[in-house]
Amino acid sequence: MKPTPQTPLTFPCGAVMKNRFMLAPMTNTQSFEDGRLSEEEYHWLTMRAEGQFGLVMTCASHVQEVGKGFPGQLGIFSDLHLAGHQRLSAGIKAYGSLAVIQLHHAGMRSPADLIGQAPVCPSDLEKYGARGLSLPEVQQLRDDFITAAVRAKNSGYDGAEVHGAHGYILTQFLSAEINHRTDEYGGDLANRARLLFEIVNGIRAACGPEFLLGVRLSPERFGMDLLEVKKICQQLIDEGQIDFLDISLWDSFKLPHEEHYQDKSLLAHFAELDFKQVLWTVAGKISTGKDVREILDAGVDFVSIGRSAILHHDFPAKVKEDPGFIPTETPVSKAYLRKEGLGEKFIGYMEGWQGFVGE
User: N or C: which end of the chain has fewer CB within 10 A?
Assistant: First the structure.
């Protein structure tokens, strides 16, 4: 019998998700410039927990000050941030949702004017004005991801997701197009993936077997090769250190970009993996109740909801009431978004999404 969107889910670490809805980690630019939690970000996230998302994930939260990727980003690189994270994790968990932080470093995608220096990258990259990391800096980056996870655990989060997608620093290491290092962190796939695995293994060792641990990967753009990403996924599964994989597809229903992989959909490519005990979720244009059902029927364990979660803080409750629920049409007014818990900076950010915000 296939699970419904309301069927609970137990992760290998023992954490229980009350339904199959995860709030996708979303840039919202609402926190303080030093990385501290703002009231607006707290309200946005806890309102989604109240709206019955079984797992609420923060926006990308940077593990080094130099890894900041956007204005108003929530930080986890300093003990200065602990009080805010303690409040946020407690606020999410008060509604019976799992509280998970996404650990992030933008690398070459850090705007120089935002961080006050050249962004960093696995190797020098003139296109982005980025400088290559020294070997000690790579090792420090690894340690800072692990330290951030420990900080998150101490803040009360149920778990953490390591952001290895969307062209950020771990994608940059994985990409043969971007990573031109000649040491143990560059070259063949095993070397390019070394940092990711060291971070995952380090977090598991430091945070213990009951800490919910996931990895986000994306199979396209930024020099990523679909088959290499599938190989990394299978290795992550086989090594047994993670609880879930979060595959960001941009569009969960599309064919791969590269023609020689178009014998099946991107989703079908990942459904071929032997997931064993590891659970998986996908993100990308899962907008309606019908979409949710279709993705779960394809064998995905839980769905990551972005756009529809912005439009409806209680999207899971709406789908429970009406399995065919269709979100309100866009554009929507600023007043509508305020009612749904978005602060002014988030609304301003959403104005950059074509056709999303009206008058």
Answer: N
Burial class (CB in 10 A: 0-12, 13-18, 19+), 61: buried
- For residues 91-119, one letter each, b for 16 or more C-beta atoms within 10 angstroms of the residue's C-beta and e for the rest, the string is bbbebebbbbbbbbbbbbbbeeebbeeeb
d(CA 277, CA 131): 40
Domains in the chain (CATH in brackets) are 9-327 (3.20.20.70)
Q: Which of 128, 157, 168, 261 is catalytic?
A: 168
pTM of the model: 0.97
Report the C-alpha gap between 258 and 122 in whole angstroms.
Answer: 25
Whole-angstrom Cα distance, residue 192 to residue 194?
Answer: 6
Is 95 an annotated catalytic residue?
Answer: no
- Residue pLDDT, tens place only, 6-63: 999 999 999 999 999 999 999 999 999 999 999 999 999 999 999 999 999 999 999 9
Question: In terms of C-beta density within 10 A (0-12 exposed, 13-18 middle, 19 or more buried), how is residue 57 classed?
Answer: buried
Distance of CA 258 to the CA centre of its chain: 24
Provide the pLDDT for residue 2: 80
Gap between the Cα atoms of 196 and 288, Å rounded: 33
